[in-house]
């Protein structure tokens, strides 16, 4: 799809998603006197969370129903063969033979994005020598984005727990380490925005990546950028009423929902976009959060040559072994002078 | 389903982690903060809605003005002049005299740790008053 069409589609979708809560919460009370805060503050968040959980479980169970009869790990090193062929740690991780190898590979994949770390870039150089060079920028931005998002998510627990668990205050202190601006600026917010901007520019500026990018790639980037943007605006610029917001969020998690007074429309936009993110999650590429654990090219050990893996959808074949065949025709075979395994027929033995 | 045991264990761990706020708060209906407003003084330096969300920026402005420019006079929105001082104006006997009954109520509720008290000494409260920490 053309990049302009992709951008218009995904950007337009985001604009509509911002406009819906803005018009419904800000304009409707003025024009018609209708108050829809309960819809955007209670009903839609609950629905979104239900869709999220049901959707994720549905996707995972659906994946689990697919048999993987043969081991298909993508391997990047010497596989286990003879004991005297040495394998170093990288080869044991990149071509795992044991369960420990697979666990190590998965930990590195999930926590450190190792397969992105191994990313290479074809470098033509002077045109005479073609070589592959290590390319770590995508890995760096991905690590920055995912970990900052995790920290932002954990920091938001301060709105969903009372009293706040100890690790939230520790993370807040570390995140606001430089103590600049007021309220104290969190580094994770800035880094999140920077990483997302890099990931977006990468799609827009590199021709090959731009060619394979679809609205489904731009939409999550725009969505998360807008969520981060509204959050940053609420904290630093337009100043949300935190106490009222916490009353609302605590009502949601303790299942006694209520809509307090004095919450700005910006909060409803933020909450609506988060709800959209939650509901969109299971049906989009974002579901790699649970999918990474179930990718058969990563979570299987490469033991095809050592262990027999039986295809679960093999049809049941009625077997007739040679021994049974010989039992059936032994006498005739002996009469005809054919060699047999057992000289005496079992029927004669009984007599 | 293949590897059912592992899949279900994974789903349960995932759900347990993601629903942390729900089971962490179980049985504890949180009480919104209970602020004691001053009896005598009825008007703050800015309207209530402004102070609710932007008091920290007012205090930050005061801090910079007093410490860096030595300018202590603050003209409120209604034209009244105030002395820029956290301890002598905001927390004077007629206004928000008790930190535990005013500042701490919301700050504890929302998990905010302002660094006012890195430098300031909080006004002493009468010892017979027990600090309200029950929620």
How would you portray this structure in words?
The complex is a heterodimer of chains A (351) and B (135). Chain A is mostly helical and 351 residues long. Chain A folds into 2 domains: 315 residues, Transmembrane di-heme cytochromes, Chain C (Fumarate Reductase Cytochrome B subunit), CATH 1.20.950; 32 residues, no CATH class. In chain A, 60% of the residues lie in helices and 2% in strands. Chain A contains 15 helices and 2 strands. In chain A, strands 1-2 form a two-stranded antiparallel ribbon. In chain A, a hairpin with a 7-residue loop joins strand 1 and strand 2. In chain A, helix 1 crosses helix 12. Chain B is mainly alpha-helical. Chain B has a domain of 85 residues. Chain B has a two-stranded antiparallel sheet with strand order 1-2. The longest helix of chain B is centred in the middle third of the chain and has 22 residues. The model of chain B has no long low-confidence stretch (mean pLDDT 86). Classes of the chains: A mainly alpha (351), B mainly alpha (135). Chains A and B meet through helix 2, helix 7 and helix 11 of A and helix 1, helix 2, helix 3 and helix 5 of B.
């Amino acid at each position: 799809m053309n990049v302009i069409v992709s951008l218009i589609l995904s950007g337009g979708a985001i604009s509509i998603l911002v406009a819906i809560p803005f018009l419904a919460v800000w304009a409707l009370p003025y024009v018609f006197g209708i108050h829809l805060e309960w819809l955007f503050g209670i009903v839609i968040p609950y629905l979104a969370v239900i869709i999220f959980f049901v959707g994720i479980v549905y996707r995972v169970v659906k994946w689990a129903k697919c048999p993987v009869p043969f081991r298909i790990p993508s391997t990047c090193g010497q596989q286990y063969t003879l004991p005297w062929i040495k394998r170093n740690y990288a080869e044991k991780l990149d071509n795992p033979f044991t369960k420990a190898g697979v666990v190590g590979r998965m930990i590195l994949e999930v926590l450190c994005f190792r397969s992105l770390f191994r990313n290479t870039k074809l470098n033509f150089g002077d045109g005479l020598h073609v070589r592959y060079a290590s390319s770590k920028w995508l890995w760096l931005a991905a690590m920055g984005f995912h970990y900052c998002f995790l920290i932002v998510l954990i920091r938001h627990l301060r709105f969903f727990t009372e009293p706040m668990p100890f690790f939230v205050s520790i993370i807040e202190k570390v995140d606001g380490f430089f103590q600049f601006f007021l309220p104290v600026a969190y580094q994770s917010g800035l880094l999140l925005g920077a990483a997302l901007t890099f990931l977006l520019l990468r799609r827009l500026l590199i021709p090959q990546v731009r060619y394979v990018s679809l609205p489904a790639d731009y939409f999550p980037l725009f969505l998360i950028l807008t969520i981060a943007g509204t959050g940053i605006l609420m904290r630093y610029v337009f100043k949300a009423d935190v106490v009222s917001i916490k009353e609302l969020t605590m009502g949601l998690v303790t299942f006694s929902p209520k809509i307090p007074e004095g919450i700005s429309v910006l909060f409803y936009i933020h909450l609506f976009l988060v709800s959209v993110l939650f509901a969109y999650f299971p049906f989009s590429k974002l579901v790699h959060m649970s999918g990474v654990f179930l990718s058969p090219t990563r979570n299987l050990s490469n033991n095809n040559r050592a262990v027999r893996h039986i295809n679960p959808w093999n049809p049941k074949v009625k077997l007739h072994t040679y021994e049974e065949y010989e039992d059936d025709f032994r006498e005739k075979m002996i009469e005809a002078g054919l060699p047999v395994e057992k000289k005496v027929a079992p029927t004669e033995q009984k007599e | 389903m293949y590897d059912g045991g592992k899949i279900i264990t994974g789903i349960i761990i995932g759900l347990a982690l993601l629903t942390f706020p729900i089971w962490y708060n179980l049985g504890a209906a949180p009480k919104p903060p209970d602020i004691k407003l001053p009896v005598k003084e009825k008007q703050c330096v800015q309207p209530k809605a402004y102070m609710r969300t932007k008091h920290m920026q007012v205090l930050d402005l005061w801090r910079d003005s007093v410490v860096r420019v030595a300018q202590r006079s603050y003209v409120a929105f209604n034209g009244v002049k105030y002395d820029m001082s956290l301890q002598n104006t905001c927390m004077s006997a007629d206004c928000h005299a008790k930190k535990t009954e005013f500042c701490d109520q919301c700050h504890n509720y929302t998990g905010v740790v302002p660094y006012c008290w890195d430098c300031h000494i909080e006004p002493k409260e009468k010892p017979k008053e027990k600090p309200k920490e029950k929620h």
